[in-house]
Design a protein that fits this description.
about 800 residues; alpha/beta; Dna Ligase, domain 1; D-amino Acid Aminotransferase, Chain A, domain 1; Glucose Oxidase, domain 1
């Protein structure tokens, strides 16, 4: 019987059971990692399909047997890699030489024997994945990802030999030649191994890529899983917009099993085995059925299994390297058995390599037009330039330095010109596609998956590409003013007064948490409702009252894939809250329950049906009054259910509830009863409830309110209006609005004294300390527990707080 041990002394073949990370020079980074996982992680329950490596010695033997070294030098030595046309010509010439070269007889015989050993036990029905594995690939500091070729669904000896020869030749793909020069690698010090692995029948199910770090921000507490129906090449190449799932690692490790947030990708194509037996192609792309486009490609149970595998892989490689090692992992689900497999793992090489201590900040002019196109944001940056539409590789030589590359999608062949671009915009792709990976590596913004960029953007048009406005990347049809600054935060001293953050947009949580902070002092629930849900909650509870057909259609489209509007509301709200809580975990996140005014509620989809017109909404039906109102109790219950899900199902118990605009002590008591009726009991499971101090009654009766609340936060915006009797939206009296007015400061002082008298923490979440340094100093002098500031104000305010604390010490 044939045994893998037959090859233990071979120069040409090594089965996965015989290789590991010490063998990179022999089998390349990809195969070394597969062997390491096959030996060490299968025992931990991480499934890896079997296979073998055709070693780099095989590649060297081919060159030697065919006397190719001198001919390769003659072609490569004079080459200027930035000359796109010469690069294409030389690359094609070299690949033809290697592909047509004769295989040494001993190599050919061992390749045949290894093939038979791997496939004989499977009978006539099997297929293989044949992948290149360069000796300079999948290194922690340079990925070389996608530089060489891969072939899927290979069956039959002749096809197997041909695919291996194609892989050897692909060491000199145009992009690989260019990338080696850019990275400082000698062409003749890099060799190529070929990996031969059993295929997983993901053509009948799904596959994708996952990262043990957020690819945008570098936030290391999440696993990001992307996937689509069919073979995984479409996800890797960026041919489609995949589904996305985030899982929070710290709470997963505590035993919680729930998706943090998800995004339904369009997944318009899926790659399957070729159905035409006469075709020379072994795979093909077909349209994804609408039902699959509108459903997630894997279940939550699959997401949890993949997360478990990802964490085990990261932990293992981190221990091996003796340093935290975020990983980039390819997975596939077998449609015949339902099993999930790991088919590749490499170190993540972009965000994990960023040096800490410095923070880049961008600001974009406020008076922005509507974006021309939108898509998924990549890169957290802004750039401007003239559009250059590139239809195919034959037009690459036309691209000029500093232009914005606009294309249907990019491939590794385009990398020589991508490094000249100021930004990238593509019709297709998700945040783990080729364009996204290269954009991060180059440090430029990219907007991917726009669907229609090449139709709407004209060649030569002036563009601004913005990836600093949340998950949605925006392309503006003009040059906008923006600023870029870099701040050294590596040696920043934090004050004794806690410095927290005001935050509404969950999509910013993984990025702004890099700014020094003590948690979130104000997370705005209404931002999540208006941006992620968009529909008035009563429209889900009383859908029969929505009679306008266009509104009904819009609500139906938004809730596609959900069993009910109620579940859509709870799920989207929970995802938004959870993203903020996870971004700052385990620091405290103070979540203010919805504080829409009636005129703001009316702007939500269907809102005009449920809201009355009020003369002065600021003083009207809002905050605690809504929570206690019989007609609004059902919508309040939806908010409570979302909070409960975040704290108990997701395990993010760092969320603190805050009640806004609570006019009377009796109203406070009733809110507590309603919270308890919705299974949010103060003190149970560590739940704390805070109150906004924004009415004079809150200050004057702070001793009485202290019986019902665990802490307070001063909202200077409304408090100033109510103390001074000023409507800041009225241009006739808005000039009187000033938080520094002595009457307002006296109210703030009384609030702080009252909270301290009752041993309650008190912070401030209004605009004043963000706008006025002297107000921040005043708060320190009065003994405020914390300040919650806008993210762009924190770094400017910290020195002021430190100075005020020092002055207080010396006085």
């Amino acid at each position: 019987m044939l045994s893998e041990l037959q090859f233990s002394n071979s120069s040409y073949i090594r089965f996965f059971s015989e290789i590991g990370m010490d063998d990179i020079q022999l089998v390349g980074g990809k195969n070394a990692s597969l062997g390491e996982m096959y030996q060490s992680l299968i025992p931990q329950g991480v499934p890896v399909p079997n296979g073998f490596a055709i070693t780099s010695e095989s590649y060297n033997a081919i060159l030697k047997e065919n006397n190719l070294l001198e001919r390769l030098h003659a072609i490569l030595d004079p080459l200027e890699v930035d000359n796109t046309q010469d690069l294409q010509k030389c690359g094609a010439e070299i690949r033809a030489l290697i592909y047509k070269a004769t295989l040494p007889e001993s190599l050919y015989n061992e390749m045949v024997l290894a093939y038979e050993m791997l496939t004989q036990p499977l009978g006539p029905h099997f297929s293989l994945a044949i992948r290149s594995s360069a000796t300079a690939e999948d290194l922690p500091t340079a990925s070389f990802a996608g530089q060489q070729d891969s072939y899927l669904n290979v069956s039959g000896l002749e096809e197997y030999i041909d695919a291996c020869k194609q892989c050897f030749a692909s060491l000199f793909n145009d992009r690989a030649i260019h990338y080696r020069v850019e990275q400082g690698f000698d062409h003749f010090e890099v060799s190529l191994s070929v990996g031969v692995q059993l295929m997983v029948r993901s053509d009948l199910a799904s596959s994708g890529v996952m990262f043990t770090v957020d690819t945008e921000s570098g936030f290391e507490d999440v696993v990001l899983i992307t996937g689509a129906y069919g073979l995984g090449e479409n996800v890797v190449q960026g041919a489609i917009e995949p589904d996305e799932f985030y899982v929070h690692k710290p709470t997963f490790k505590k035993g919680y099993r729930s998706v943090l947030r998800r995004h339904l990708g369009s997944k318009k194509l899926k790659m399957i085995y070729a159905t035409d037996p006469t075709s020379s192609e072994s795979i093909e792309n077909v349209p994804t059925p609408l039902e699959q486009q509108h459903s997630f490609c894997i279940s939550d149970e699959d997401v949890m299994k993949l997360t478990d595998y990802a964490i085990k892989i990261e932990d293992y490689y981190s221990k091996l390297a003796q340093v935290n090692r975020p990983m980039d992992i390819e997975w596939a689900k077998d449609g015949e058995t339902g099993e999930l497999f790991i088919v590749q793992a490499r170190p993540e090489t972009v965000v994990s390599q960023k040096q800490g201590g410095f923070l880049k900040q961008y600001t974009l002019e406020e008076n922005r037009p509507m974006p021309l196109v939108t898509g998924r944001a990549v890169g957290s940056r802004v750039a401007s330039g003239k559009a250059r539409l590139v239809e195919s590789a034959e037009f690459l030589h036309e691209f000029q330095e500093g232009e914005v590359l606009v294309a249907d999608m990019t491939t590794p062949d385009w990398e020589p010109i991508m490094k000249k671009a100021s930004a990238l915009v593509t019709n297709r792709g998700g945040r783990t596609c080729h364009a996204a990976i290269i954009a991060r590596e180059l440090g430029i913004p990219a907007v991917v998956g726009t669907e229609n960029a090449t139709d709407l953007i004209k060649n030569g048009a002036e563009l601004t590409v913005s990836c600093i406005e949340g998950d949605e990347g925006r392309v503006y049809a003009k040059t906008l003013e923006f600023t870029e600054s870099e701040v050294d935060i590596g040696h920043l001293t934090m004050p004794k007064t806690k410095v927290k953050m005001n935050l509404g947009n969950p999509e910013q949580a993984f990025i702004v948490n890099q700014i020094p902070n003590d948690g979130v002092g104000l997370a705005r629930m209404e931002f999540i409702i208006s941006n992620s849900i968009k529909v008035h909650p009563q429209a889900f509870i009383n859908p029969e009252r929505i009679t306008d057909t266009s509104t009904q259609k819009l609500i139906s489209e938004l809730t596609t894939g959900y069993e009910s509007g109620r579940e859509f509301f709870i799920d989207k709200l929970a995802e938004g809250i959870a993203s903020i809580a996870a971004g700052f975990y385990p620091k405290e996140v103070v979540l203010r329950l919805s504080d829409f005014k009636t005129n703001e509620y009316a702007t939500l989809i269907g809102g005009d049906v449920f809201e009355e017109n009020e003369e002065n909404p600021m003083l009207g039906f809002r905050g605690a009054a809504r929570y206690n109102d019989p007609e609004c109790k059902a919508s309040f219950a939806l908010e409570c259910e979302a909070v409960k899900r975040v704290r108990e199902t997701l395990g993010l118990d760092n969320v603190v509830i805050m009640i806004p605009f609570c006019r009377t002590v009796e109203e406070a008591a009733l809110v507590m009863e309603n919270l308890a009726a919705n299974h949010l009991v103060r003190g149970e499971n560590g739940l704390q409830v805070y109150m906004m101090v924004e009415l004079p009654s809150n200050v004057l009766l702070i001793d009485e309110f202290s019986e019902y609340f665990d802490g307070f936060s001063i909202g200077t915006n409304d408090l100033t209006q109510l103390v001074l009797g000023v409507d800041r939206d009225s241009h006739k009296v808005a000039f009187e609005y000033d938080e520094r007015n002595p009457a307002v400061k006296k109210m703030v002082k009384m609030a702080i004294e009252g909270a301290k008298r009752n041993n309650k923490p008190i912070g401030i979440c209004g605009q004043a300390p963000s706008d006025y340094p002297e107000f921040a100093a005043f708060l320190v002098e009065e003994g405020i527990s914390s300040m919650s500031l806008n993210p762009d104000s924190i770094l400017d305010t910290i020195p002021i707080v430190l100075e005020a604390e020092e002055a207080l010490k010396c006085s």
